[in-house]
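note to self: the first set is below, dont mix up w the second
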Amino acid sequence: MKCRSVACIWPDTPPSHKVTASAALNHPPTLYTGGSDGSILWWNLSSSDTNSEIKPVAMLCGHAAPIAGLSICCPMVVTGDDTKTECSSNGDGSYGALISACTDGVLCVWSRGSGHCRRRRKLPPWVGSPCIVRTLPTSPRYVCIACCFIDAHAHFSDPRSIDSFEGGEASVDKGRKHGKHSKTTVVIVDTHGLTIVQTVFHGNLSIGRLDFMDIVLLGEDGEKHSVFMADSSGRVELVPILKESNAGGDDGSGSSKSSQLEVVNWGNKLSEGGQVVSIATRGDLIALVLKTRCIFRILSSDASIGEISFAEDILCVEEHSNQSHVLGGMFLEIGDTGEMQNAQYDNFLGHFAVWNRSGSAIVYIVSYLNNVFKSETLCEIPSSSCPADVRLLFSFIQLKSYLLRIESVCYDDEEPLRWNPHVTIWSLCQKNNIHGKSSRQCKMLGESDFLAEWITSSSLHEINSQGGRKMRITSLQSSFRKARTENNKHADDESFSFVRNGLAVSSSMVISENHLVPYAVVYGFFSGEIEVVRFDMLLGPDCHGESPSHDVEPPVSRQCFSGHTGAVLCLAAHRMMGAAKGWSFSHVLVSGSMDCTIRIWDLNTGNLITVMRQHVASVRQIIFPSAWTERPWGDCFLSVGEDSCVALASLETLRVERMFPGHPSYPEKVVWDGARGYIACLCWSHSGLSDTSDTLYIWDVKTGARERVLCGTASHSMLDHFCKGISVNSLSGSILNGNTSVSSLLLPILEDGNFSQSHSKLSEKVCSPRMTSSMKITMDPTTSQGQVKKGIFPSTPSFLQMNKHAIGCTCPFPGIAALSFDLASLMFSCQKHEPAANGGVKLKERGTSNPRTHDMNFDDGSDKNGTSTDTVEEHECIRSQEEYFLRFSLSFLHLWDLDIELDKLLVTEMKLNRPENLIIASGLQGDKGSLTLTFPGLSSILELWKSSSEFCAMRSLTMLSIAQRMISFSHCSSPASSALAAFYTRSLADKIPDIKPPLLQLLVSFWQDESEHVRMAARTLFHCAASRAIPIPLCDKKANANRELVRSLSEIGENEGQVSKVGGTSTNGLSSDMSPEPQATSLAAESPDKSLGKQGITEAERFKILDWLESYEMQDWISCVGGTSQDAMTSHIIVAAALAMWYPSLVKPSLATLVAHPLVKLVMAMNETYSSTAAELLSEGMESTWKACINSEISRLIGDTFFQIECVSGQSANTAGHHPPVPSSVRETLVGILLPNLAMADIPGFLNVIESQIWSTASDSPVHLVSLTTLIRVMRGSPRQLSQYLDKVVSFILHTIDPGNSIMRKTCLQSSMTALKEMVRAFPMVALNDTSTRLAVGDAIGEINNATISVYDMQSVTKIKVLDASGPPGLPNLLSGTSEMAVTTVISALSFAPDGEGLVAFSEHGLMIRWWSLGSVWWEKLSRNLAPVQCTKVIFVPPWEGFSPNSSRSSIIANILGHDSQVNMQEKARDSTYADSLKMLIHNLDLSYRLQWVSERKVLLSRHGQELGTFPL
């Protein structure tokens, strides 16, 4: 499982966002807007009785091309959970997820609940470029996507989105002049996995270019889906959708042919000049919006039923004639009318909205009753007031009962164009004027300006000693005030002067040497300036233990580079492997610009090294090879220009070495395989006629020759294969070298699992002598060349042991830097070196394939073993580096400004450097490199905490794990770490009551994490959040009122102790208030149906619980942690079992009964992640919870467990090599935790199973050793329960050391003798003589007249004699109230004489000591005779002080003297049954008696270590 926490660094200026598509989600009220750069903004709407406001929350980063369409969908349907209500298909837009498509074919599904990208995938190239996305009305899991082969930068008209062209005529004329029929593809996509389940249409349309598409419902029942397609001339084409695509089409193989097309041409019936600008559909009703009127038609008829003219409305009567025509229209749902009645019934009533290019809109009430069409104006929205030189783009969308106007505002006529989204909220009801009369003008309820929100959020950050940034914020505020002043008809030229001054970011990158801690962010501006923002906090303490100064230098330093005369479009940084001729630089920055030049800078000194001019157009990309590319190519870079040329330049020679010309267009995707020496360049074709024009060029770097040219779909497939090869040989598992400004969103989407295969190969490369010198230089940016030559090399190479890279750096869009912190890598790297007791270092190796630090010799002249002083210094340096590594993570991930006292404590005690001069926000990692980044400001960050339980779980788990780890570094930081842990477990929820509780399913997936700190943090958070986060199907409604009380009473330490000690405690470790009620336990033993009925659960609730337990759908949290559908099901079982065991009063009473069998199956599944957890839960709750549910199946479960051990251990010669290995943790849990608890729950069944294993398994099978080990654990954990089966236990142990089976004896001898010695220690009625040649076993519990002592010979492993312990005759008559057949304690202690010629036994029942005086010769004679032997002497022990007789023990002397007359044991015997008597007898069994020989004929009797008397024999 992966737990990634994202921190985002925003630039000083807000990002540009030109809206190209929009979608609205009603529950909760959410607006999504897609931009021309591929970004998607997430807006939240909050409304009250008096005011409504909408604010931007986050940016969704998953596309690198203009957003073509957005739509609301439901990727999953989970019954029994609150997800079901969000995914209702009621047509109101409350589906719970967003699907987005961009023009380069990438699809993303964004969850509203978790806020992250559930799935990111690229459509196959034969589909084309998506243009319109629509959700199927009755099946919201599926969406219909229309794709065309056109210019990727063109925009499609959408009746519910924005016309991005500056003039409406442009799109109309373009569609009219298109001579050929465009190739179009319409597919149905399952949003669950983004697979194509049906191809509705693929070919050339009979109409013109596709401009409009929607899904309409036809047929008599209105359930037949058809794709409605139209061009700008009004010609329509209908294609039916097969029903098979909606049901059972998840495999994605259904590429079915469409049925016969239905073509309806309405273009000839439109009046002259009637070009369609928008089309809206509702059921069978079609509205064709023209520039001056709107025509309504019935789809099944070719006649119009009515029209609306805009000639006299405000839509056409405007001050500016060029903005007077209508732009779009759509149907609305207002008030109680609900959905509009279908036109097929010849009657309908509804609302229709139309808007023009100036932002004014009119809402009409339209009706068609009795063949009469009527339209009436309901309300009007005035146009937007703006300066004359401001560009505006408008669109409208309905959100609940509001109409939102989305404006894209551009205040600058020069490059670059900066677009600012502005949203206003309008009421759809009429308002009254000052005279009380009704006014047609709508009321504006609220507005949100993206720039204003940005300035407000940015001003929250304290500004000190950074005059540059202060000046920028001031300029922003002043320009904002000038731009948004009411009735400002002529904006000042200085408004937005910060853009003209070049402060708009054109490119950015994060410098992180070999994917360690990043230490700088580089920004390139449109003015040509370059700014390097260094994190001094990253340099950290050096290897000599010096700590950084917190008072002298600020945490961030800035450095500027000037020289470019055009916008800086690309950046890259590189650490030199060799040396340049005549130069001494070692760390360079390469920049490409619109001025056609490439500049190389020395990052250490800030000087310009050289200027290269190999391109005649703008330079768009700078690409370096992977870290392990050999010289001389390792110090070369590629430059890609808009002149369609790719050049290779060397940093050693500072000149161009290769030119790769001849590309037909600009190569938008260029990748360099440094290991194999090839370059791949993909050139997209924008001809718009077919998919065969995309071309891939493959070049040989060494020769400069063109090796291969591929066209069409083969070019994309080859590029994907090419990129997979690069990722396999890459240190980071990525295609790009980390230090580049190229966005990872531009790269091909690769499937996971490539990096794990390459790690062993990279380890060999790391340890090879050839790579040693380059590693010395590249690993640490603070290492100088002289230090490397002298062998003084920091300990940074120890981080090469990480399987994954702890901090990933990317810039999805210019100016936006995202840092992704991987929790496993943070903990994994930090737990490599633990301090040993002797002051040295103990290496903990978590994997065998990873290179070890002590195997990596970085100093050729040093001794192989090294000196102790050097070792200590090196590992002290490692410890210091790792500690600073965690501090850096905390500095960026902590939620600052919410608890001032905690912030001060972290700065003073933990020495955190707070990044005050950076604009920091939070985020979420999504699928395939996608990101969800919150905007600056505490309100936006907290919105993610309030809406996403997945985010809460991952962020809290990360912070709590790091806090616990920091305690191990320094005890002085323990108070700060404890306060930090308390903040993220309880204090945060107390301060912000409406934040989501951490998701329990996600937390349990980390219960078996490799890191102890992560395991402890996950379990602590589970108990802290359990009372607030119980899933709805499991929650007991009656317990809702008591949740807060339980939450306040439960303590972290107590709950944590119950879980963390589950491996070594007995089954009685539960607190009394958390144990299940006896009534529920007894009811569970009955049949399931009867018990469920008595427990008050209905059959419907039972099915809901079972559906939730068996849910296999991929859920949001699974995609957050990179799990599978199997993880979803197993985590549900773990959560239900844990809640049923620890919190039975908060869940439904039948939960334990329903989850018991799935829990057992999960244990037997041998799942690496969950079986150990399931076994621990089953073991801990066996006695209190699960025994009543599975009592009859415990023996079978024991047998199955032994079978699993037999199969997976691999120690048997017969089974070795035939079964795949199972993780050792699972086997250890089965052997050490589960089996002992199962054995204690059903001791007779356990003994029967292990006896059968003697004959049914191989002699050298590991199950025999496991059986002996389990017996020892049972003796230690529950000796009283085993006391009545001592004869069976001894028989089994002696079987394992039978001389007749030499193989088994050799395998089990040591363990068997250990088990016998443990029996002697635990049971005083079992004794060995001093030479371990004789073994005596007495009956601890038995009948008075049938008590015996068995004597065994250890050499022959046979029973040699039986001693009679039932005498003397008449004993039952001496004990009042005791019958001869009564079961009682018989033998309480045994001891062999020191000379081996006698045996003494003590019986608590009757207080007697028996003595058998036997000689050695007599022992030999007895070996052939098993007749019971009477004792030689009986000594009666007088009752001692404090002796209290009960029903299980009595004294003969006390009965004779009449001291027990007050106890009527006969009446008690009548009242109690045999089982109850036996249970009471076992419970009161005293195993503390001991007999010790003090002389040849004298024994000492003791109890609990206290002497009771000495008795001569």
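second set (the one i keep forgetting abt)
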Amino acid sequence: MADVDDIWLDMQREQASAPRGLKGKPKTTFDLSSLQREKTKGKKVTTKKQLDASLQWMQNWSANLKVEGNDYKVASVGGQEDTSIAMEEPPATLLDANLDIPTGTPETFLAFVQRDINCLAEDNLSVRLQSMNKLERLLVQQIDNLPTDIIDAVCDALLKPLLKQMKDKSEKIREMAVTILRSLIENTSDLSGTLAYIFPILVSRLGCEDLDGVAHLPEIMRPEPEQKPTVIARPVEESEEVRLHLARLVAALLSRLSPTQAYSYVDEATGLVRAGAMDPYHEVKVFSCETMIAFCYNHTEMLLHFALPLARSLTSCLAHNHAKLRIAALKAVTACLFCGIWKHNFEIFQVLMAWQDPNKVPVKAFYEGVTNVNYMSTLSFDRHPAVRRFWFETLAYWMLRCVDKVDLEPYIVPYLLTALCDENEEIALEVFWLIEAIGEAYEEEHEKDLRKTKQYGFDYSWTYSGRASVPFPLQGAWGGGKSVSAHLRRIGGQGPDMLGERSRTDHHHREKLDEMDEREDEHALEELSEGEDDEGAKVRSKLGRPLQLPKRDYCWGNIADLKVYARLPRPRLGSRAWIRTHARRYIKATFNDVVDFRDCTSLNAGRLLCMSVAYTEEGVTEWLQPMMAALQKFYSGRAWAAGDSEVMQTYTTVCKLLGCFLEPIAIWGQLKTALDPDSVLELDQRIASVRILSFCIEGHIETLQSVQPPDPDLGLGLLEPVMPELISMMHESDLLLSPTPASRDALWALLFSFLEPLRPLLSAEQVSQLLFVALALAAKPPSDEASEPAMSSSKGKASKVPSNEGLLPMDLEAEELVDPDKLDRALAALSKGLDETLSAGSQPGRAPALPAYSLDSLEDDDVDSAHAVEAESGIEHESMRGVLFERAFLDVMEKLDDSFQVFRSVLYLTPLSVFVKAAHQEVVLRNLSSFAGPLANAPTRSAALTLGAQLCLRCTKQIEKVGADSHLGKACCTFIWGAFQVMGKAHQGAMAAPYHSLSFSVIMSGLSGWRHFFLQASVDIRLALFPCRRSKEEASQPMRWIVSTLADQELYKRFHLSAQHAETVLTGRTPDDFVVEKARSLREQSERHGVVARCMAASTLLVGLRRMLMDGRGTYLPWNPGSSAGSLQGLFKGAASLLTQAQPSMDPPFVKPTPPGMLLYAAELLHVLFNLPHDSDSDQESRQAVAVASSPFKLLDDAARAIHHLPAPPSRPRLPRGLRLSMVEEEQLVADYIQALLDLNLTLPPDPNAKYTPASMDEGAGDIILGWDDSLPSSTSSSSSSDAPKEDSSRCKTGLPAEVSRLLAQSPECQRWNAALALYIFGVDLAATLKDAFDRNIMKWRKRKEQAKLLLAQDVLLRSAKALSSQNQSLER
């Protein structure tokens, strides 16, 4: 085996014989690392990868350094290994001596360092390290003192030892070896002889033989570029510091290559650069990016086919956490783009955008997830503003400098437009001016295409001959709202508010600057306009002073001088044409993301769409139909329902821009079907279309207002053909009939989009139509709870407690408006322009101060003298709002159709003095009759009856203020009578056959409203029940209905037929198909409804009678004469009919007996009628009659015992005035009375010692008093306040009086005994008045031997006589 000296001699001879500059491998190459004494390990048997034919050129990279055996081990004599020559410690060499460095000849210098070079091959680490330190000190730190020939000789001598040390186990030795080698390469005069050794070793140490890991695969099986690795997971060199020095060595090596040398080793060179960019250590990445930039710019032409691999290796740098590295990677990608011009740049963009052919799916995707990263999108939303700024500047740089930008523009435009919505407003402003620079270049390139547009000054119709302006929607926020000078909007640039110190405004006004900014602008103008003509100064004045951009050493040269202004003008022609040219490439794909349910996707799509519309302007007409469809899906989908403020603001801006740039007639043609009653769209789509239309109109109106100078002759502008049809269709739209909350909000927005700015330009007819629209939107719809209850699920036995389903609490003074603030705003806008009808005020040219009008008041304080009786009111000026209703009232009423809620809101808001006018009163009552009639549905009828009572209550309050004898008071009295006549007729119409319109809920709503009306202190019930102001022969419809209801013993049959009809309509079954359970439930429910309705009617009538007798307006009641409705005789006969069982008039042919509860009310009602005062009575007699009215019947626990102690009547009983009964009628009345007592099926007269079931009283509840309310005044005679009847006047949640519900909840025995007591009390009145009729009946019963009737009549007479005698004694005292 040869020794070390022989090996070095052979290597030197080989180096001397090889010609310089030729590429090739040495004939014999030894692995110098084999000289180290290492323990021989067993050779691992592995399968060697076979290189593809296309990669055979790589097989010789590292083969030259491999040997087949350990042929160079040091051997001793005899073949035995000898270790005696091994060094144990570093020897002293010439470099240790303080001698001058011999720089005379290369041979002398080599002899000077030869000992240290030889020590590099020693096994001892300290020896190698000491020698390496010496060489580094000499060849790195002092290399500037060495001549070139010496450096060349040293490079030849040290090349292979240093390359061997690059594989040393010691990290420090490897690092110093790389450092020395880099120093030699940087200073040697010729690299030709070293390249053949350096490149293979570097490729081996950086592991870049096969970076993609595809060398062993055939061409057809290699993956797509996006599936290839981007980072070296386990580098060959594990030390990051050594890899950093290797990267510096690579940079030094590549910087010294000549074009010929670079061409010879281009594969190895690009592999080294790619390996550095894919290195996991960030410092290596940064240095490699710089190396790649220099290498690409120096060898651009030869790197055409390497541009894609180089750029792909930078993807890991683009996604790195360090912002500095991402910026360096962008510069490197730019360098790669200049290498792949006209061929591979598009492929680079495919990698950056994660583009994938939809027709090519990798096999891997079928078995596991495949993720492609869109690096352009990632950079556009980078977390660091410096990276985003440089990224957008780089995009603009590509557009300005790349010669093949035509292929790249469609992919860059969306990202530049997205940058205009960057969260940092300074970046967004800079991007705007970057696009302006691109537009300027576009104008130069396409000068011929744009020449005519520039020369002729052509502009589109939306600009109104160039006089209108649209604010640029920077960051997707609408910037308009007011007309400003110079046609410019502005907001100062500012960064993102990371700490939340200022609120984000939805509406930017950019026309104002701070005072300091204004002064600085003026100063900048003076400086900038020096030496410029007037036109140049004018342009400068519009733009203001430029913003200061941050100074950066990495900024592109032509971008650094960019002028950025905070004032944004309309984009220049070149910018608009450039965006419009490429928008069609992505616009339809954007529509798909608009409806994405993810807020981030929808927001980004909206911002891109917003910026596209801002630049495309009228060109967006090309995609109007699909754009409207996408916006409809957005406003009707989950993206809008999510309620994200930024998303909604962005799409609002999009719609406003569409309204600015497009012809209103075109937008109206796309969206008007939303207001059409025959529209085929779904409700949510119609609402979405209305929202879009409102924003579009708002945008165009703001454009119209921006016209400078203002043009009064412009009128509605392009809205002229749209507004009349729009207002007409809004007025006729079915969306007003029963608006949902969403449709109501959308219609309000549509109304306010044009009402206030265009109010002076609207005609009187349009004002009336819009008033109708506003009232319809503010109208409160009838509650669905008032509808008839479903019966399909009723099971079980009938409850003893009366059913209250379908009933609602009645509050006549409840708020009847939805969105009163919006309505008040609409009315204020509609009232504008009417002041010319008012008389001039004290100041010329100014309207007088108007009284305030409150929507929450029903008192009509502000309108009681505004219109009706000017002479009496003393008010000289009418309310403008009153004038509005006065003029539009009839027009609005004519257009009501079937909209009850509009009718209600009209009457709710109309001043009382307007709708009680004779001309208006007839229209109001006719519509009230229609809505309360049997043809309307149950909720509408209930609401109409409540509305009638509410209007009457307003009239009574007005009468109380102005007096019943005034003109307005008389009109109110007439209206009250007419309204109750209408309500009474409506109830009677519903009770007519075939009873399909009969509704328990409607009856109870009407009775509850009347009861509430009767109990108001300001109400004179006589105005509602008796025609005191009209002909005496006119029947009282309310009295007819209420009496017929309480006296109708077959009402339960009518309810049963109505329930059967409702069930048939609901289920489609006929009554014959009903199961037994269903038929029973319908029958039981109908019986309950009949009893409750009749008791409610009787209670309401009793309350009304007591209220009239005790209200202090006199005890005289103006009954109608004869037996007509409203007469005393009709009321008496109706109440008396309850004492006997009626004859059947409808199937089934029998009538159930009168329930005990109804007998209670009948007896009490007859008792009150027998004690009514006459007009000829004295004051004392009148007071006695009032005492009877104020002493109602109370349910007692021991009603049977109370029969033995009947109270003495406070007044002398007698027949009511004007009531004349024949002898037969008197006998029949007495006979019916006795029969009613017998039908109670009680033991009469009762046993005074028997035990009886007490009345069940709720805990804490008061007495059960018939026909009474706490609001009624107590007796004014001898009764003190403590003796006045007390009742629990609390109402059920359903509006049913507590007395009725509690009475019917008592046990049957309790009800029968209290009914008997009430009949006995009435018997005292009957015996005192019709004593002869009792005697004649007793004689008949004695002859017929009807002992029960005989004994019962005698007992009644006996107890009556006792009670009457007590009365006479009290009167005598």
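remember for set 2: The two ends are 161 Å apart (CA to CA).
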